[in-house]
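Chapter review: from sequence to fold.
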Amino acid sequence: AINFLMIGATMGAVLFVMLLALLFFSTDSMRRKPVFILNVLAILTGMTTAIINMYEEVHTLKYPTGVINTHVALAMGCFTAITPTLVEAILILRLYSVYPPSSTARVTFVLIIGIPVLVVIGRMANAIVYLVNYAKTVQQLTSGAASGNILMTSNLPCVRIEWSLQLFNNLYCSSLFLFKVYQQGSLSHGPVSLSQRLKTLFWISVSNFVFPLILSVVQLAIYANNSAHYVTALYVEQVNIQFTIIGVVFATVWVAEGQWADTRRQETLGRTTQLSTLPTTSITSSPSRK
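The token string follows.
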């Protein structure tokens, strides 16, 4: 219980800071974009998951032999099943932004966007089947440990299917997105240096691709090796869910911060230009009296 409490408190605090940073650096036009709205929803969903997790673990610590609220356990199961799919929708929107239908061949566009959309639909169907089965057995709960047991050791292969599809979708979307971003950056000749482009690409790839991919492989390997180690797999899963949200939002904040800095730079340049074009007045000295 203490480990889950620490994960929920730490990741929830980081998500709150990310929400403040996202709201601060975003512009009015950016706040109206679907990717911004989905980022905010992802943060709020992650914070809600962290709050429910902390409530559940505090209740377990205070009442070790008490019966846990089944509604809380069911809510935790719903957020755990749905949150990763919501984050994947942000990755699909990013693919759509770098592979727009106006400049992408129709067949290529359908393949690039259609595959992750089908994966998301399959994950949603799998989550529904999983939650229906979980709701039927949630009445058997006697403790938080029992909720984790039912959550992970169901006879249905929903957990393996979900984590496998999550691993595939993350690998697919992130690889295509990073390839396109690198291609556009290498072909552009703007004022941004190549080292700066590589630095940006590095941080986006690390936060959105490398760490979530590693965590997905680890949690799937632990659970596939021995489902009795469901607690360790749950640790990794909770960290992976929150870290995936943080990574996706981090990339958005990175872009928003760059746009915010460019806007401030242009405003400063405009004020400097206006000051330089103001008419100057010459002061002539009156003749001195002798």
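Two observations follow directly from the output. Residues 171 and 213 are 7 Å apart (CA to CA). Residues 281-290 have pLDDT under 50 and may be disordered.
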